[in-house]
Amino acid sequence: MATDSWALAVDEQEAAAETFGKLNLKGEKAEKPKPESNGTEEPESAEQIPSKDGGKSEDDDKEDKAAQSLLNKLIRNNLVSNTNQVEVLQRDPNSPLYSVKSFEELRLKPELLKGVYAMGFNRPSKIQENALPMMLAEPSQNLIAQSQSGTGKTAAFVLAMLSRVDPANKYPQCLCLSPTYELALQTGKVIEQMGQFSNIKLAYAVRGKKLERGQKIPEHIVIGTPGTVLDWCSKLRFIDPKKIKVFVLDEADVMIATQGHQDQSIRIQKMLPRDCQMLLFSATFEESVWRFAQKVVPEPNIIKLKREEETLDTIKQYYVECHSREDKFRALCNIYGSITIAQAMIFCHTRKTASWLAGELYKEGHQVALLSGEMMVEQRAAVIDRFREGKEKVLVTTNVCARGIDVEQVSVVINFDLPVDKDGNPDNETYLHRIGRTGRFGKRGLAINMVDGDHSMQILQRIQQHFSKKIAQLDTDDMDEIEKISK
Ligand SMILES: Nc1ncnc2c1ncn2[C@@H]1O[C@H](COP(=O)(O)OP(=O)(O)OP(=O)(O)O)[C@@H](O)[C@H]1O
């Protein structure tokens, strides 16, 4: 069996069954306690999910996306910069388009402005410049907004919710839906931080929360997962949906990965008053997200911020012909022996190869970090953080694990195995994302692809054709030749 197909088989299994299996990221389903511990003894009607026995279910997809999103949030401590223009589509094209360059211009309540500054925000982010005036306008307007993770969406809608709350009214006035319990907690933290000087209280509507039957909750903002929020609004009546002024649907792209969540969100939306402000946020905007967005947000304004495009223009690409993984490792050692590599990311196809390789590199004296699918998402965030701080020089990872993670300072990327999709075809998008650079971070980079066997050679050729960029051969037994590539 060729190395490639073996690796492929293992990877498929990993991706489908194990990678996120050990993460505590099952959203509300995982947190669901036994009925007797809920205190409410409600049946589970609103919470049915599809069975998991048919291979990779939509729930696995959701966990995959939710894990990625959470990981990005945990490791990010500032804005992702973007030089692309914001695209704004107003519901009423005749109304003037406002954008703000400072938070003062928004005329926020002083305690809220204090909260914003306490978070270290000096000026609105690109998406906030347009989204905030729209969200805070009177009478309220609906909004669908899409921009890459890390561009300031959460902070924007949190500010909108906080500014619409009347603290004197002790009942829920804002409702925010998140795809999983963990993501709800992250948004909750932002609400608490930004609202620290306002007398605004927050409740989490997640499974396991014990409440007395017949009780009405006094908190001003409720954040939770769709199934529980639906129960709280309908059967359990902890919330009066008719009093909700702002309804936020966060991470819509993650949300729609579960059919149940879509239906529940739509059912909640139908209970809200007509003049309730509806806001929907998503990192991506594929057709399915768009269809869902239009169902839950009537007459919307739309704001889009394109992701900065990655290109291969400033990347020198090479391939090395090998015959086995040991051979690849020797080639890798020769490269390390010939050029100075500040920090490198090495991608493997399977977890098994990644841990083997990390072990071998460690034995050679390298400071290696391993990012593995067995780790909890918080542990993975910690590994990435250490690597970003330069505490380790080599990060070995599988693709499933590192998807969507940006470590900008890495100038050398080694594809120990080439990226392929589930069907064994070249995964061009992943290739580009692993080694590409945005215009802004247009530093020169080096990418080295390890090829072993005919199949991976074909993959390499197809990647080369796809991007119309030459990938030159590198002889790793020729030290002089290796030295040249770093010049
Ligand atoms: N105006 C601002 N100035 C400085 N930092 C900001 C500003 N707005 C947000 N941030 C910070 O930037 C980071 C990303 O912001 P935020 O979480 O709101 O983005 P996001 O688009 O919602 O991302 P995600 O979809 O991953 O949640 C956070 O650390 C946040 O505190």
From TrEMBL:
Enzyme class at the top of the EC tree: hydrolase
Transmembrane regions: none
Listed GO CC annotations: cytoplasmic stress granule; nucleus
UniProt domain Helicase C-terminal: residue ranges: 314-482
Catalytic activity, reaction form: ATP + H2O = ADP + phosphate + H(+)
SUPFAM superfamilies: P-loop containing nucleoside triphosphate hydrolases (SSF52540)
Main location: cytoplasm
Coiled coil regions, renumbered to chain: none
Single GO term (MF): ATP binding
Xref: CDD domains: SF2_C_DEAD
Motif placement: Q motif: 101-129
One Pfam family recorded for the sequence: DEAD
EC number per UniProt: 3.6.4.13
Cross-referenced PROSITE patterns: HELICASE_ATP_BIND_1 (PS51192), HELICASE_CTER (PS51194), Q_MOTIF (PS51195)
Subcellular location: Cytoplasm; Nucleus
The protein's name in its UniProt record: RNA helicase
Taxonomic lineage of the native organism: Eukaryota, Metazoa, Chordata, Craniata, Vertebrata
